[in-house]
Fold:
Amino acid sequence: MGFLTGLNIITVILILVSCDCRALHPHTLLDTSELIRIRGYPAEVHHVTTRDGYVLQLHRIPRGLTPTPRPCTRRFRTHESKGMRWILLEWLKKVHSREISRRCGSAQGKRPVVLLMHGVLSSSDDFVLNDPHQALAFMLADAGYDVWLGNARGNTYSRRHVRLSPEQPEFWDFSWDEIAQYDLPDMLAYVRNTTRAPTLDYVGHSMGTTVFFAMMNYYPHINGWIRKMVAMAPSAYIHNIFAGYRMLSIFSQIVGGSESKYETGRLSVEGKTSLANLCSPDALTRGVCLKIIGLVAGPSRHAIERDYLPVIVAHTPAGVATRVLTHYSQLILAQRFQAFDYGPTRNLEKYGSLTPRQYSLERVTVPVGLFWSQDDWINTPRDVAQIAEELPRVMLNYKVPLRGFNHLDFLWSEDARRLVYIPLVKFLKT
Structure:
């Protein structure tokens, strides 16, 4: 949502500043699967067609670079003697075998499964945009997980439909409601079916948490599919957002409202190249790039690798439907966690009432770990506190122990490994 302001500022700068055309970092124009493979990890590309016709691209890291544990062996001495002693030993042997199978499943190829879901204007790229020991997807793969990276409809990887084209306004006729109703549950079902895992872990950032919370209001049974959920920068109530965003929300309702149906924030190859040059280590405009990130996401120590910032800005923003942003604007102004507000007439047709459906966090019955920061201007401590109060099973309420850690630092900061990812992996494994 706040990226729109940043994008406008960047556009002006690009007009005023001529391209220096420095040599690009070799990762600048790579897609997610290429970013994974260039780090030496195996990568797979999967496609999921939602029930309403959108074709979503998922990326998978089936294993990490750490050695695969040796399979456990089932050792139990055979006894030929009969009678009660023999019967007891045979029963103990079966119990022993089942316990070994339970403990050693991942060692025999059945790795625990995790799905990572991005935020607004982001994509699967954001979980692999760092060195392997610092990017969350690689860390989870090396921790023994079968890692899946989702992409919501409309971003750079999910721009296909069985009958619509992105050139048609109808393609963009969705908010994050549809991502919660169709994209996320259909991706989860696909991952479960492909891996044959009855349960999996889920990690969301920002909008990735919003759609998870809303999804459980439509499909409460999916709680049974999830072992644990991690919410980085949890987003449901956002009315305490930075004041500048409240003003933008009022403006967006005046100029567009619920009728906006188009795309914003996707970069062309030329745009990616220009931004990468603008934010390169030796560019005079590099400081402007960092200022814009601070304006968008909140105060930051800017612990972003100097040489990798151009790669990051070339991958984010990744495109979004304007109605997704409008939906968040509605949450800010309504001060409620609710479905998209189409206005009284269409609300009555769609929801059976003049007002939109209200979502309840009490429907989220899985164990949840909340990871939030004091200086996140988008998902503020006050809003996170309300979320924590209403979720029934908050198992961890973790405040990042560093001032100057903002909304985007959860993805890009060099400090994220130490301050967020190590505690996150520990939470999932306990």
